Amino acid sequence: MLLCGADLLASLTIPGVWENPEALLQQHGIACIVREGTDLDALLQHELLNRYMTVLVLFYVCCMPKPGGLSVRTCVGVGCVFQFPASCRFLA
Asked: Rounded to two decimals, what is the model's pTM?
C-alpha cells in the first residue's frame, strides 16, 4: 500500500502524471493522510478514485497542526502511531 498525502492522491486524477494510476490502485491501494482544508469530497468524486474506493484508506491526523510528508516521516521515525483510519467505504 502506498502512503501519501492528498496532493499526491489528487495527482492520480491528472492525465499523464502517472504511467498507470489504475494499476497502482488495483494492485497496491493507497493510504492517504488528509490535512485540514483538503476538498476530499470533490476529489473522491473523480471517476478513477470513485471506482477504487475499497482500496483507499484515509487517515485524518489531528495531532499535528499541519500534517505533511516531513511531519509524518519525523513522527514515524520516533515511533508515533497513527490511529483511527477511516476507509472510504465508511464515508458514504
From this structure: 0.66
What b/e sequence results for 52-86 when a residue is b if at least 16 CB atoms lie within 10 Å of its CB, and e otherwise? beebbbbbbbeeeeebeeebbeebeeeeeebeeee
Distance of CA 50 to the CA centre of its chain: 13
Quick check: 76 and 49 in contact, CB under 8 A? Answer: no
For the chain, the structural domain boundaries read 2-90
Cα 25 from Cα 12, distance rounded (Å): 9
At the topology level of CATH, where does 2-90 sit?
Rossmann fold (3.40.50)
C-alpha grid cell, residue 87: 476507509
pLDDT in tens, 13-69: 999 999 999 999 999 999 888 877 778 888 899 999 999 999 998 887 655 555 566
Cβ(32)–Cβ(49) under 8 Å?
A: no
